[in-house]
Amino acid sequence: MSKIATIKTGGKQYVVKTGDELKIEKLLQEQGDKLVFDKVLMVSDEKGTDLKVGEPYIEGAKVEAEVLEQGRSKKITAAKYKNKTRYHKAYGHRQAFTKVKIIKIS
Questions:
Q1: Domain interval for residue 14
Q2: DSSP helix/strand/coil, 70
Q3: How many CB atoms lie within 10 A of CB 57?
Q4: How many structural domains compose the chain?
Q5: pLDDT in tens, 28-68
Q6: In this structure, are residues 69 and 24 in contact, taking their beta carbons and an 8 Å threshold?
Q7: How many CB atoms lie within 10 A of CB 65?
């Protein structure tokens, strides 16, 4: 049976299990580095019978991951416009991310 965990990183919460690949907010690790998430909010088995919930975090629980890549998302464009005043401004944003693969939940 594999375990499921809820971790907190970058101001967001993610439900992960072993083998998952996910894009999270940019971290300062290099590609191929291992990292440990120690802010684990919940750990459970796949059926949800063995459930542990932290207050707010579980003592001693950790999720190990490996950095697969560092990158930037597609460009999002937005515009400001005010009618009758000839004001229009367009801008874009590319969010930086870190892609990680979950190795182990303990």
A1: 3-105
A2: strand
A3: 14
A4: 1
A5: 999 999 999 999 999 999 888 889 999 999 999 999 999 99
A6: no
A7: 26
